[in-house]
Task: structure prediction
Amino acid sequence: MEQYNVITATETLNVQCLSDGNVLIKGENIYYQLIQNYSGVLRLKIGNNYFNVYCKEISETDFELWIQHHVFRLKLEDSRSRLLSQFKKFSSSTLENVNVKAPMPGLVKAIEVNQGEIIEKGGGLIILEAMKMENEIRSTIRGRVKSVDVKLNSSVDKDQTLLTIEPIIENLNK
Amino acid sequence: MSKHKIQKILVANRGEITIRVMKTCKEMGIKTVAVYSEIDQDALHVRMADEAYLLGPAPARESYLHQEKIVDIAKKTQSDAIHPGYGFLSENPIFVDLLEKNQIIFIGPNSKAIRMLGDKTAARTLAKSINVPIVPGTTQPIKSLDEAIETARKVSYPILLKAAGGGGGKGMRIVRTESELASSLRGSQSEALSAFGDDRIYIEKYIETPRHIEVQVLADHHGNIIHLGERECSVQRRHQKIIEESPSTIVTQEIRDRLTKAATSLIKASGYTNAGTVEFIFDKDRNFYFLEVNTRLQVEHPVTEMRVGIDIVREQIGIAEGNPLSFNQEEIVFNGHSIECRVYAEDPTNNFYPSIGKIVSLKSPIGFGIREDRGIEEGNEISSYYDPLISKLVVWARTRNEALERMRAALTSYEIFGVRNNLSLCHWIMNHPKFVDGDFDTNFLSNYFKPEVLAKIPLLILKVGTIASILNNQILPTSPTTSKDGEIKSKWRTKLIEHMR
Result:
């Protein structure tokens, strides 16, 4: 009997697979049936309701789910991946640099920061033009610009690293 | 103007509007020619046309904006007319002149009217001369920062910087204090230059809580000018419309009479022919001011068509053939209420960033009073080269309330998987008390919309997602195969998870 922890952005659900087509989620006993699988879109019968679900595999343990108008990611943790992630947590004691990536392909219209500059959370970094619109890429953390990895007026691909930020944490004992 | 029966139309566009135009052509027995860029070779508009010709690589300037190539194809295919759709070459007077030189009919206004109305400052001057109210500000582009400072002081802050050479929100900046003016002006100029190749900027008083309401007009070559009522397009993000409806909730019959008269008299004064839209801005006291004329078929024209039962594209073709309008103003019957949602490939929970990728599933709502104009189908890729519009979902009903109910239900049954889109946002808007009450302006989304409201996932949906990912993890499907009778047979390989070995 497999057990999972399902980790979403807001909560962790404990899941027990009882038998084929029967799971216990957060203490609720749920029967389900896979009706059809068409080009990656699953038609599921859950209880007495039908759902179309597109389940996109991001990695072995991470999935992006498309249900009705909802899109969200979750991590499926079984006993093995739980051990792995605990090990990872212990081994990475330093703060990691943040690579700011392009959310879409586009053209670098402006670079608003210089290497070495300290930027605040929410501060503008780069203006990317895509689909005839200018989009400002902002910093998600406070930090120092470690490197600017793109040139002005160059084209970038989706997920290409635009710049790298070294996080700054106040009152951190050296 | 002499009459000429059009036999074949080249549609110099892509996506839903091309399909929209071709549908009417087919009804009228007119042959259609599609043009396309390399990445659009399998697009719906290409397959729908009687003939299709490659223009060039994906970037618009090498394909859909390549005037000479388009004219060559029109001549080669003996197309007697070109419909430009919206965007691309639709408001380019140089293209219209080029067609005239090659004796190809442009389905739209003449180049003189486009030049005059396309130049926002010239249009403001014209409106002022015939007593159509305009927003206080300059009727000439500003020449220097000093002039901008002086003008801004005169009309008083907040002010709006706008591009003289084009619309769509490009180059537009709100300036609230003098200290922001210099940098905003620079930003405006550079954005306008890259969007329109023209960095002329003019100043308008910024109207707080503005509502955007426009009038659809049709004018033939025989001096007949009629209007098809108003459309309200106030729900916008980044100055781009998302929701349109007709009629507007704040336009009374008395206002409508004055509004449509202002619109038709402006069209008359400019010598305009074919379909056009006169845009107005309403302030909180329901005073209206002329904004600009869009000298083309608008994205949101279906809202009007649903209400008046007139095919605007058919009228455009008739006018271009030299025929008089097939009805007069008194014959137009305004019926019920119509609403449109523009379904965009963009993520409302992440700054409205455009999304790209493959649409793995697309199920459209169907039923009484529902219309969907779409140029993309399941399996197509949304690329970053063009406008991120997936479709336009339009409903009609007897009353606004019924139309809202119909739209909510239609949105609920609309399924798009694989590319992030704004369906959930549209649904949220249709349920928002302020929208339902008709109490909104162009700041509606910035005032009320918080991305968190869409990011919250109900527990039931989380559970469904959990089961789907467990299934995905336990069962590895091989690619589905299609049998002769079209039935999908998935081959399944069941695999028990044996992680701990």
About this structure: Chain A has one helix and 16 strands.
